[in-house]
Amino acid sequence: MLEKGKISNRQAGWLLVNTILTTSILFLPSMIAREAKQDSWISIVAITLLGLLAALLITSLGKRYPRQSVIQYSRIILGKPLGTLVGLVFVLFFLYINSFVIREFSEFVLTLFLTKTPLVAVTIAIIFVSAYAVRSGLEVLARVNELILPIVLLMVILSLLLSLPDMDVHNLQPVLARGWFPVIKGAYPAAIFFAETSVMLMLIPFLKESKRATSAALKAVLVVGLFQLLVILGVTTQFGLEVARIKFPFLAMTRYISVFDIIERLEPTTMLVWVMGGFIKISVFFYCAVLSSAQLLNLKDYRPLVLPLAALLVLGSIVLWDNVLELSWQIARSIIPFFLSVEVGIPLLLLFLTRIRELRGRKI
Amino acid sequence: MYRFLVRKLYAAVNRFQRTTLSEEQTGSTPLYRDLKANLYRIENTLGKSGDVVFREFSIGLETPMRAALVFIEGLANRSTINDNILNPLQNYFRTVPLQDSASPCRQLRDSVLCNSEVRETETLEKLLEELFMGNTALLFEAHSMALIINTQGFASRAIEEPDTEAVVRGPREGFTENLRTNTSLLRRKIRNPKLRFEHLSIGTITGTKVCLAYIQGIASPELVVEVRKRLTRIRIDSVLESGYIEGFIEDAPFSVFATVGNTEKPDILAGKLLEGRLGIIVDGTPMVLTVPHLFVETLQTSEDYYTRPFLSTMNRWIRIAAMIATTGLPAFYVSLNTFHPEMIPSVLLVTMAAAKEGVPLPVMVETLFMAALFEAMREAGVRLPRPVGQSVSIVGALVLGEAAIRAGFVSAPTVILTGITAITSFILPAMADAFPLIRVFLVLLAGIFGLYGVLLGVLIILIHLVGLRSFGVPYLSPLAPLVPSGLNDVLLKTPVWAQIIRPQALTKLNPVRVRPDIPHPDPEEGESGA
């Protein structure tokens, strides 16, 4: 085994929550609101249901091979050459999505908090910290997350509670004024966030109870959906139709908070949520990338790969996109089919093939 | 790079040890039959030291037999020797004849010597070792054997309340430098046959007595074996304080966080043993080591368990807040000032800007400078004699604080902040060695990356902390990995009757502390049940 540590199902669920939640809290509200307007919350409910389905699909595939990751069992299912190809696709996917997240992360930190710092410095700093966590292993990552997630969730709840005075429920009306189509169209970009349960394809072999991974993943998706719903409701009731035009509605919401004119400008809380949660997200994808490439290359230890891949991620996150506009265009539109086909499409195919093989095996 | 340095350091240490610390031969030299020769040899081995006393005399009236007492002045109690050894030896044989002059030891031990502990020895090394412990050796003419009589009675400090762990409520006694006193203090707390003391001798020159204390049936056997193994592995010439032992047995010698705890109070040690920990009592120091040592222990004090739960819980949170303040506040201040002034509330911003008017140093340098100054004053306050110590505080408060602000060398907010940092740092004395370093680390990061840097620094510290282990137990347990049943002694301090099981990370044996079937005070009857 490459990874000697085992994590509990709760730890895995918590990792999943932080992985999906952090970025989606910041980016999703305005992405959905662009199409769904005041009905964004219905989109979230719909996409959460789909997210549950995706989680079910991914974990039921993983549970069939409780001691192996997708890189290893795709070779069994598809044969060596084709399986290796699928493994390569996953490695590239993890690297690509992580470059994406890192660029998102750095741009956010840069534009809002460190306007004069060069992009590369911010990127290198976060990748360095992530590399340290990844090198220390999955157990360490899961434990750090156990400390971070409660803080992140507490900060989100706190920001929502303190914004209560600025909220107006009438902003949610009229409900479904333009029918269901905009709602579904709005839900579309949210799909890639909920499909991030695909990291479970790599993590299931390291769970203490791999057989019960489904419930952990489903609970995680539900928690994410709930918080997502709360945030969307919060920003929609506060800003109404403006949400679509604000890049980071959650950040804007925390900026408006003012309690007795003393507690105000609570951006540090957003900063905290973003850096802490973003760190977990980046580290989880980084870990998946490192582990999957080690498995693809049949290495005995994944740690020699950490630094080279870290360098690759720094490079990728800076070179692949010219500016933020390109990045946000991709995340909203063009990248979604590719991500979804890797995150959900390939597992669906693999599950389909295993089922067929199982059924055929039973007949014989 | 770091690992490389560590490896180099280990290699250097190993090479050095091989050349210098040759194992001493602990041979066994039998005693002669000739009394004079024995005494001569003892005197020579000790290099004619002035504190060794030889007292020769005769036993019996009809067939007198030459004998001699040897003891070390100051270690042995003279009145015990006079009253319980010499007196009976001289007087007893006035009436009773010496039964068997060929082997007098038996008669002496059985019916003459009025002492609770009399042993025999036949080797010179054993005899010398007993002498150094304050015992007295009785040698006879024509016998290659000596009686060792317990006469320990050296001066030692009385049992006092320790300065380091003062309490408002709770026992006031503290450990002393005497190992025996310390074990007795612990026995008096835990009257149970399962309380075990394992003795070892560490230090090839000093031969310091070290005692491993634990409760059989509560401490996990694997842990006991592990600690014993680490203790017996130590090869060093001297052990002058328990810190020497700590350095050898700790899991992470290159971490700023201590993975071995220490205490000066028997009630605290008893509490730790009852949680499944082990104590290492070292002769010559009141500081007793406890292992495994977890991070949450620094947030706990003995008084939490003696006072009512509401106050204890509040104190826990004050300590957590103090921990965050003393490590993070200066960094937060620096990052807000240098990178994010827009985040400071407007009213406060104006005041702070006015205070900073004309201050020459950048905020980061100013903060580091004041922090260094405070550390210097603290160190000076500890080292200086008490009367002089006061002048340090006057100079610190008036000259450095007040005058520096007036002169415009430092800004008032920085001084206030250094003050808060200083006060909060005293709330967690156990972390006093780690926190100043963390503070500087975070301030430096704040100077480079602002809040972003501070958060990254916190993440690095967290990653380091969750990866640490103390004797196999995760350092941040029960927070990470989360053990929900353990949180009632970390974030909350529930009443004693609600702390039903022992910390699960430490031991799985004998988990029930409180019998849950015995009802706790019923709220209906007017008692506060919480």
Q: Can you give a write-up of this model?
A:
The complex is a heterodimer of chains A (364) and B (530). With 364 residues, chain A is mainly alpha-helical. Chain A has one domain: Amino acid/polyamine transporter I (Up-down Bundle), CATH 1.20.1740. Chain A has helices spanning 9-36, 40-64, 70-78, 80-112, 119-136, 138-163, 181-194, 200-203, 213-239, 249-256, 267-296, 306-319, 324-334, 336-363; strands at 258-259, 263-264. The two termini of chain A are 33 Å apart. The mean pLDDT of chain A is 86. Chain A has 14 helices and two strands. In chain A, helix 1 (9-36) packs across helix 11 (267-296) and helix 2 (40-64) packs parallel to helix 7 (181-194). In chain A, 52% of the residues are buried. Chain B has 530 residues and is α+β, with helices and mostly antiparallel strands. Chain B has three domains: 35-149, no CATH class; 179-293, no CATH class; 307-470, no CATH class. In chain B, 45% of the residues lie in helices and 12% in strands. Chain B is built from 17 helices and twelve strands. Chain B has helices spanning 2-20, 35-45, 78-95, 104-112, 124-132, 179-189, 221-232, 242-249, 266-274, 302-306, 309-338, 346-356, 363-383, 386-407, 412-425, 435-449, 451-467, and strands at 52-59, 65-72, 118-121, 136-140, 146-149, 195-202, 208-215, 261-263, 278-282, 288-291, 469-470, 473-474. In chain B, the strands form three sheets. A five-stranded antiparallel beta sheet of chain B has the order 1-2-4-5-3, with helices on both faces. A five-stranded antiparallel beta sheet of chain B has the order 6-7-9-10-8, sandwiched between helices. A two-stranded antiparallel sheet of chain B has the order 11-12. Chain A binds chain B through residues 8, 10-11, 109, 113-114, 117, 121-122, 125-126, 129, 132-133, 136-137, 140, 142-144, 146-148, 261-262, 264-265, 267-268, 271-272, 275-276, 279, and chain B through 339-340, 342-345, 347, 449-453, 455-456, 459-460, 462-463, 466-467, 474, 476, 479-482.
